[in-house]
From TrEMBL:
Protein name as catalogued: branched-chain-amino-acid transaminase
Reactions this protein catalyses: L-valine + 2-oxoglutarate = 3-methyl-2-oxobutanoate + L-glutamate; L-leucine + 2-oxoglutarate = 4-methyl-2-oxopentanoate + L-glutamate; L-isoleucine + 2-oxoglutarate = (S)-3-methyl-2-oxopentanoate + L-glutamate
Keywords: Amino-acid biosynthesis, Aminotransferase, Branched-chain amino acid biosynthesis, Pyridoxal phosphate, Transferase
Keyword Amino-acid biosynthesis attributed: yes
PANTHER family reported in the protein's UniProt record: BRANCHED-CHAIN-AMINO-ACID AMINOTRANSFERASE, SUBGROUP IIII AMINOTRANSFERASE
Record PTM N6-(pyridoxal phosphate)lysine, positions in chain: K194
Needed cofactors: pyridoxal 5'-phosphate
Pfam families from the UniProt entry: Aminotran_4
Organism: Pseudoramibacter porci
Amino acid sequence: MDIKFVKAKTLKEKPDQSNLPFGRIFTDYMFTMDYDPENGWHNATIEPYGPISLDPSACVFHYAQEVFEGTKAYKTPDGHVQLFRPQENFARLNRSAKRLCIPPIDEDFALEALKQLVEIEKDWIPTAPGTSLYIRPFIFATENYIGVHVSSTYKFFIILCPVGSYYEDGLKPAVMHIEQVYARTVAGGTGEAKCGGNYAGSLAATEKANEEGYEETLWLDGATRKNIEEVGSCNIMFKIDGKFVTPKLTGTILPGITRKSIIQLLKSWGETVEERVLPIQELLDDYHAGKVEEVFGMGTAAVVAPIGKLNYAGEDMVFNNDEIGPSAQKIYDTLVGIQHGTVEDPFNWVVKV
Ligand code: COI
């Protein structure tokens, strides 16, 4: 399928890179494509970024039939543009789409469309330390019918935004609250799909956590509230007694691409990584025994986000004196180095645009 190009009348001014927020500034162009049963996915277009018009009865507004992704583009010191494991994102988008009864996209075509869009927008890729061009592909249901049903029509978009750190304080350790009342998901739910509904359902807990001075929520499993699952915006890793431990993917946790990459990286360094059920009681016991060395979040937006404090039932657990630990720093430097082309990529993760 050819991709139509609609030229913008004017281009926006590029933002100051020294203080880029996350997710508020968007580039000049976006990719769009439509689905209907007769034509399948069609009408692929790169057009000026801007508002779209939808009927108020469009399914997505009522029953949240929507899936999305997050990936990034980087500029290397010699000016090349590269993506980090984008095939994984489109594969996960299709897995999420299947769970939400959304028709699959052609992953190779989506990657080609992304490359074309990023090539056009390459001057928007920031190069200041800690910055990148965040990529947000998403698909939503557009049929104008408010009966609860699977939509017959959809739109697929890719939008881009130059970003700095997801957490305002960058690599300064975050303070998180372990949620005991609300649940993010349960077995058989949509926990492992990347769909807007999961995040909508998490907002009340995050609001409560924010009001109490925490940046984020750490979720326990919805059925027993006994086992650690994931942070609101990323996966979580613990370094306990010399070993790395992360909750295993049981169907309720988002299968993070950064998580997967960090596990591969750690194993390549000869570290022990355990993907397993991690009970909160075990963490408390290990913490009281002085065995918890480091805790950090892992995600595309969050990258490697050290966690300095976790509050559980009124008790603050403080890790590594509330400073970024040596392992988190080494992982951050290596991963970001591979993404920006300053560290060799032995895994072939990087895709050149
Ligand atoms: C990402 O890390 O790209 C995400 O999609 C997380 C999002 C909730 C900011």
